[in-house]
Design a protein that fits this description.
Length: 463
């Protein structure tokens, strides 16, 4: 008879981390998206290595006030999981090692902002091919090395704001073929290198504000044929070469506010055939070279506020057949030249010349060059009463509102006219009163003298 032996059971004791630790370090709840979430507080980088809180049923892991220091391939060693959102904000992370997140193969959102990361080890993002959003803002990155994002073909948003980036290697963005939004604000870039964005053919929005950019290579924007919005505000750009933006055939909005531009070169914006708004305010521009704005066939808004213009020639804006709004306020314009040869701007609706030094200009000729104008703003210039009131009456007859503020209120204009003409009216009125008194006195004296002479003549005849 066979002898039956009881089955042997091997029990291996492995240190584990429970969902609810004695110190209450983790808790399960619903995320803002109503998904299962585990939030852990005050844990270190070894904590998740022995994590048994059923991550396969969890979509979201969040770490608050943690001390993770180094993330490597053992940190999130989950064999099976459905984790798609990981938030490690302000977790004192210094280094991302090779394959740091490769076990999180369903990951779509990774937040690493406000850490101490100054270097990304090669292949640290390998294995997370489904990632859509990567936030590395508020770290200490100085260089982006080649192929660092090469395994992220589905990435949609990359946030690199508030780092210390001064150099981006030529192949740093390789692999990001579906990236739509790229944020590199508040870094230390000084030059946009040749073809540095070549691997971003589907990019829609590019933010490069608050850097130290001085120079833009002629081919810096090569292959950005789908870019719609480019923001270069708050840099030190002092020169634009011809055809600088030519590859950006889909660009709608270009912003170059608060730079050091002094003049608009020939064909600086040529090729931007779909551009709708161009913002050049707060530069030092005083000159527009011939054909400086050529190629802006679809432009609707041109912002030249707070520059150094003393003279404006209306011919600067030739060939802008769709221009609707022209902002020239807060310059030092004392001369507004309008030639009979200048092209007619049929589309222009708003012209703002406020806060300049204009005393007069040929407003009748100007109106003939912009026959569909609706508002002309002339607040704070040097125009006298007669000129301003004549212009006001002329434009009013043409159904054009002459404004003295950005609000363009009719009553404000009337009050303004009263103010600038008050002294003239007072002087004129005093003069009329004095003339009237004098004529009255004269007629009275003449009448008295006539009576006296008539009496004297009568006495002489009768005597």
């Amino acid at each position: 008879m066979a002898k039956w032996l009881p089955p042997m059971v091997l029990i291996i004791l492995v240190p584990t981390t429970n969902l609810e630790n004695d110190d209450g370090s983790c808790r399960r709840h619903l995320s803002v998206l109503n998904w299962p979430q585990i939030t852990c507080t005050n844990v270190d980088n070894s904590f998740f290595q022995h994590f048994v809180a059923s991550p396969n049923r969890t979509h979201w892991i969040k770490c608050t006030n943690c001390s993770l220091n180094v993330i490597d391939e053992r940190t999130f060693n989950f064999l099976k999981n459905n984790v798609s959102y990981v938030e490690l904000q302000a977790s004192r992370i210094r280094t991302l090692k090779r394959l740091a997140f490769n076990k999180l193969f369903l990951l779509k959102y990774l937040n690493l902002r406000k850490n101490d990361i100054d270097y990304l080890e090669p292949k640290c993002f390998t294995g997370i091919k489904r990632l859509l959003h990567l936030d590395l803002s508020f770290n200490f990155l100085k260089i982006l090395t080649n192929n660092i994002f090469s395994d992220m073909s589905n990435l949609d948003i990359l946030n690199l704001n508030y780092n210390q980036l001064f150099y981006i290697q030529p192949y740093a963005f390789a692999g990001l073929v579906n990236l739509k939004y790229l944020y590199i604000n508040h870094n230390d870039l000084k030059k946009l290198e040749d073809k540095m964005f070549r691997y971003l053919p589907n990019l829609k929005i590019l933010y490069l504000e608050h850097n130290s950019i001085v120079e833009i290579h002629q081919n810096a924007f090569f292959n950005l044929k789908n870019l719609n919005f480019l923001y270069l505000n708050n840099n030190s750009i002092n020169f634009l070469v011809q055809y600088n933006f030519k590859p950006l055939t889909s660009l709608i909005d270009l912003q170059l506010r608060l730079n050091n531009l002094t003049e608009i070169q020939v064909s600086s914006f040529n090729g931007l055939s779909n551009l709708r708004t161009l913002h050049l305010s707060n530069n030092n521009i005083s000159i527009v070279k011939p054909y400086g704005f050529v190629g802006l066939d679809s432009l609707k808004v041109l912002d030249l506020v707070r520059n150094k213009f003393v003279l404006i020639d209306f011919s600067y804006f030739d060939k802008m057949e769709n221009l609707e709004v022209l902002w020239l306020n807060n310059n030092s314009i004392s001369t507004f030249e309008i030639s009979y040869k200048s092209e007619v701007q049929n589309s222009l609706v708003i012209l703002d010349l406020s806060f300049n030094n204009l005393s007069m200009f040929n407003y009748k000729l100007l109106y003939s060059k912009m026959p569909n104008i609706k508002e002309v703003v002339l607040e704070k210039n040097s125009m006298n009463c007669d000129f301003f009131t004549n212009m006001y009456n002329f434009l009013q007859d043409k159904n054009v509102t002459l404004c003295v503020s950005s609000h363009c209120n009719f009553n404000e204009t009337v009050v303004y006219i009263d103010d600038i003409c008050s002294e003239v009216y007072v002087t004129s009125t005093d003069h009329v009163y004095n003339s009237t008194d004098f004529s009255t006195d004269c007629s009275t004296n003449f009448f008295g003298s006539t009576v006296f002479m008539f009496i004297a003549l009568s006495l002489a005849l009768f005597c």
